[in-house]
Structures are given as structure tokens and as C-alpha cells.
Design brief:
Elements (H helix, E strand, L loop, with lengths): L34 H7 L2 H4 L3 H17 L5 H19 L12 H13 L1 H5 L6 H37 L4 E6 L2 E7 H26 L1 E2 L15 H8 L3 E2 L3 H6 L2 H28 L6 E3 L17 H24 L14 H24 L1 E3 L1 H10 L4 H10 L4 H18 L8 H5 L9 H5 L1 H7 L8 H21 L1
Parallel strand pairs: 3-4
Antiparallel strand pairs: 1-2, 5-6
The protein binds arginine.
């Protein structure tokens, strides 16, 4: 026999599986769903990850129902007791998940009823799995967002710290991957801090829309029970209510927004990873990556492969794929809830896991596993005539129109290239052949240090500015952490 569920979700332990479940809606049906359909539609294999959020949401709902007089005090006490036991069992890994009970919600509700009887059956009053799952997912994502924000801050502070220590380390800056102008390594690292700082802003903005309460929308139209949604929102720490019940049960914008944030963060990580791959290549030799982030080759004894950056680069594709998947999942879905939405979880879970892994690994690599090699950086800057623009600017300061200065320096570069030397190594008298404006003071602008020091304005690469910018970044990160 072939495997009956080649593409099915990860199944719970086989001993927990029952054949054809009656389902929560069984009275309506003349026959149970088939084993094959049960496996196809069950989500408990992955959505059990929402269990704690599901319990929190249920408890807030039950307390509100009791306060409204819909549920008795005794029933509430029974529900609280049962949920406490279920939570402990889940944490201890001894909860018996059942595929027959479809999803995390029905598994927990069924167990609650087994533990406390009719009180368990009353919990679902004024609620539907549609507003329940939307609430669970938002609660879960909110706590993941807070953990992700901390990881982003850790990466940013690793980058800013390394930048601070390398405010004077000169390297070639590139455009078109050709040596362009000298920059400092610190400045280069702070460019990445700036990207991840924007990611932090986007994440905080995304959190505002995640943190709204769908519960109370019931299946789609709201409920006739005298519910107090504001009370539930308060207890669960939501900032606001979802304003329209139809939208509340079907909206997955918040998941898409998170995936968009994560995709962009992964794209930033992939850019940094790509530079690490290049820089650690002996042809560049700008940095050494600690051995524990690299592997060897099974056949070529000399190889040291930058696996971690390569994988980070690769995993960006997978997260962007999840964003695309979620967008297409929602495209053209009619109102309100559709079972399609069960497909939101796996991409969202994997997005969170992948980004978390990558942020943690890269932060650790930057903080503890990356050694710059300043001598190699200098050499590359010199070989690339990185101070050519400085020479042109020098001539402009002496009165030459910029276009003429550009041309004069271009000819000087050609001469230096032919002689196999850097511009700064051409004797002043030879440089003066390209423009009579060249004087003895030209040597100052042709040094790498002179070049970076002259770019002394906010956002510039001068070491003093880089130190300032790194300190400001570290202060911002600390303030963000304190504001949580
Ligand atoms: N497991 C479902 C999901 O993830 C829960 C909601 C089911 N609602 C329903 N009407 N069948 O979306």
C-alpha cells in the first residue's frame, strides 16, 4: 500500500489517531468524513503551535461571558481549572493531540469537556473558530514580533559595535562592484545598521495592526450575546478592536505585512551575507570568518566555505516565497472566512523561524566571528585608484571646471595604471604634466586617510562622523529596548 497522505501535514502520534471523526458538527451529516479527508483537512499537526494563545484567548472569553452573566461562576471556575491542567500537560509534552479533532481549537475544547463536563461545552458560546483562530494567530504573532524586535536590536548593536571599533579602518567603497572611493569599514557596517533600523521601524508599525482583537465577530456577523469586547481586548493586551466582523474573521493583512517586513529584512541579510562571501574570499581577503561558521569540502582539502552567509542568502528566497504564497492565498477570496485561510499558518511559522535563525546567527557572527583585515582593504583601495575623485576635487578647488578636472585625472589614472602604481605613487612633477594646477600639497588629498577625513558631514565616512553615528545608533537601540 502506498502512503495515503503523501502531502499531508505532520500527523500526531499514531496511537492518538482515531478513524473517521464525528466532528464538531456531526449531527448535520449522514456519514463521517473519510480518513483521507480527515487527514487532508486537519491542521493540528502544525497549528498546535498556537495552543498557549488559544488557551489565553479562551480564558479571556470565558471571563467576559461570566462577567456578562452568560456563563455561571461555577462554569468559569471549572473552565479555568481545566485549562490550567491542559496548559500544564501541553507544556510537559503529555497532551494527547488527536488528528480526529482536526485542529488545535477542537483538541483543546474536547479535552476541556472531558475534564470538566458541560462547562467545557459552554465555552464556545458567542464564539466561532473563525474569530478564535484569527485571535490566536494575532496573539501568537504579537509575542513573536516582540522576540524578533529584540533579535533585530541585537544584530544592530553588533554592527554598530564593530563599526565603532573600525571607524578608522579604510577600505575601498564600491559601485558596480568596482573600486570607487575610500570609505571606512565602520561606515560600511553602519549602512547595514541603517537598513535593519528601518526593519525595526517597519516591525513596530506592523505590530500596531497585528494587535487588534477579532474576537466577538463570531462566525462572520457578530453575536447576539451581550458581549464586552473591550474587556476581552484589555485582558489580552490588544490595543484596539477589529472594527468590522466580516473583515475581522477574514483579514490576514497582518500576516502578509509581517511576511513583507520579514522578506525585506531577509533581503538586507542576504546583501550582507553576499558581501561576507565576497570579502572572505581570498581574492578579497577583507575579513576572516571564524572557522565555526564555515565547513570544509569532502574532496578539496584546501576549502573553507562560508556556509552560514551562503545559507542566509539562500533562505531569503524561501521567505520571499512565503510572502508571495500568502498574497496569492488571499487574492480573490470572497468574504468572509474561507477554509483557504488555514493555509496561512505554515508559511507564517516558517517565516518567523527562518528569520529568527538568520538574525541570531548573523548577529553572533558579527559580534564574535568576524575579523577585519585592514591591510588587505588598504591594498585594494590603492590598487583601484580610489582617490581619483579626491584629485579631481583638488583641481576644482584650484579653479579648474569639474569636467576638465575629471578628464585630467582620467589621463593621470591611465598613466599610473601603465606604470603599475597608485596615483599617490606618481611623483608630483609627473602629476603636474596633467594639470599645471598640481602643487606639492597634492600629496595630502591622495592619501586614503586624507580622502575619508575630508568627507566630514552628517552621513559622511570621516572617522569622526562614523564614531558619532555608531554612538547615536547604539543610543537609539538602547532607547528602543527601554521603550518596550
Ligand atoms: N483550523 C481552522 C483554520 O486554521 C480554524 C478555523 C476553522 N473554521 C471553520 N469554519 N472551519 O483556519
Amino acid at each position: 500500500m502506498t502512503d495515503p497522505r503523501p502531502h499531508g501535514p505532520a500527523a500526531p502520534d499514531p496511537e492518538d489517531e482515531r478513524s473517521a471523526p464525528p466532528g464538531a458538527w456531526s449531527g448535520r451529516f449522514a456519514e463521517p468524513i473519510s480518513e483521507r479527508v480527515a487527514r487532508f483537512q486537519a491542521s493540528v499537526g502544525f497549528d498546535r503551535r498556537l495552543a498557549e494563545a488559544d488557551i489565553d484567548g479562551s480564558l479571556a472569553h470565558a471571563r467576559m461571558l461570566a462577567a456578562a452573566g452568560v456563563l455561571s461562576r461555577e462554569d468559569l471556575a471549572a473552565i479555568e481549572r481545566g485549562m490550567g491542567e491542559i496548559r500544564a500537560d501541553i507544556r510537559a509534552g503529555r497532551f494527547a493531540w488527536s488528528l480526529a479533532d482536526e485542529d488545535v481549537h477542537l483538541n483543546i475544547e474536547k479535552r476541556l469537556t472531558a475534564l470538566v463536563g458541560d462547562a467545557g461545552k459552554r465555552l464556545h458560546t458567542g464564539r466561532s473558530r473563525n474569530d478564535q483562530v484569527a485571535t490566536d494567530l494575532r496573539l501568537w504573532l504579537r509575542s513573536e514580533i516582540d522576540a524578533m524586535a529584540a533579535r533585530l536590536r541585537a544584530l544592530r548593536s553588533a554592527l554598530a559595535g564593530l563599526a565603532q571599533r573600525n571607524a578608522d579602518t579604510v577600505m575601498p567603497g564600491f559601485t558596480h562592484l568596482q573600486v570607487a572611493q575610500p570609505v571606512t569599514f565602520g561606515h560600511h557596517l553602519l549602512a547595514y545598521e541603517a537598513m535593519f533600523a528601518r526593519d525595526s521601524e517597519r516591525l513596530a508599525d506592523c505590530r500596531r495592526r497585528v494587535n487588534r482583537l477579532p474576537l466577538g465577530s463570531e462566525a462572520l456577523a457578530g453575536t447576539s450575546y451581550p458581549i464586552d469586547r473591550a474587556r476581552v481586548a484589555r485582558e489580552l493586551g490588544f490595543d484596539a478592536l477589529c472594527g468590522n466582523s466580516l473583515d475581522a474573521v477574514s483579514d490576514r493583512d497582518f500576516a502578509i505585512e509581517f511576511a513583507a517586513f520579514a522578506s525585506l529584512a531577509m533581503v538586507h541579510l542576504s546583501r550582507f551575507a553576499e558581501e561576507l562571501v565576497l570579502w572572505s574570499n581570498p581574492r578579497f581577503g577583507f575579513v576572516a570568518i571564524a572557522d565555526r561558521y564555515c565547513t570544509g569540502s569532502s574532496i578539496m582539502p584546501q576549502k573553507k566555505n562560508p556556509d552560514v552567509p551562503e545559507l542566509v542568502r539562500g533562505k531569503a528566497g524561501r521567505v520571499v516565497g512565503h510572502l508571495t504564497g500568502l498574497l496569492v492565498l488571499m487574492k480573490a477570496q470572497p468574504l468572509a472566512y474561507n477554509k483557504d485561510n488555514q493555509e496561512d499558518k505554515e508559511p507564517l511559522f516558517d517565516t518567523v523561524d527562518t528569520l529568527a535563525d538568520c538574525l541570531e546567527l548573523v548577529a553572533d557572527l558579527v559580534a564574535n566571528g568576524l575579523a577585519p583585515v585592514p591591510a588587505r582593504m588598504r591594498e585594494a583601495a590603492r590598487e583601484g585608484f580610489a582617490t581619483a575623485t579626491d584629485l579631481a576635487d583638488y583641481l576644482v578647488r584650484k579653479g579648474l571646471p569639474f569636467r576638465d578636472a575629471h578628464e585630467a585625472v582620467a589621463r593621470a589614472v591611465r598613466e599610473a595604471e601603465a606604470r603599475g602604481v597608485d596615483l599617490g605613487e606618481l611623483p608630483v612633477a609627473d602629476l603636474a604634466r596633467f594639470s599645471p594646477l598640481v602643487g606639492a600639497d597634492v600629496v595630502d588629498v591622495l592619501t586614503l586617510e586624507g580622502s575619508v577625513a575630508s568627507r566630514n558631514h552628517p552621513g559622511g565616512t570621516a572617522p569622526s562622523r562614523v564614531r558619532e553615528a555608531a554612538a547615536a545608533a547604539l543610543a537609539r537601540i538602547e532607547a528602543e529596548a527601554a521603550a518596550r
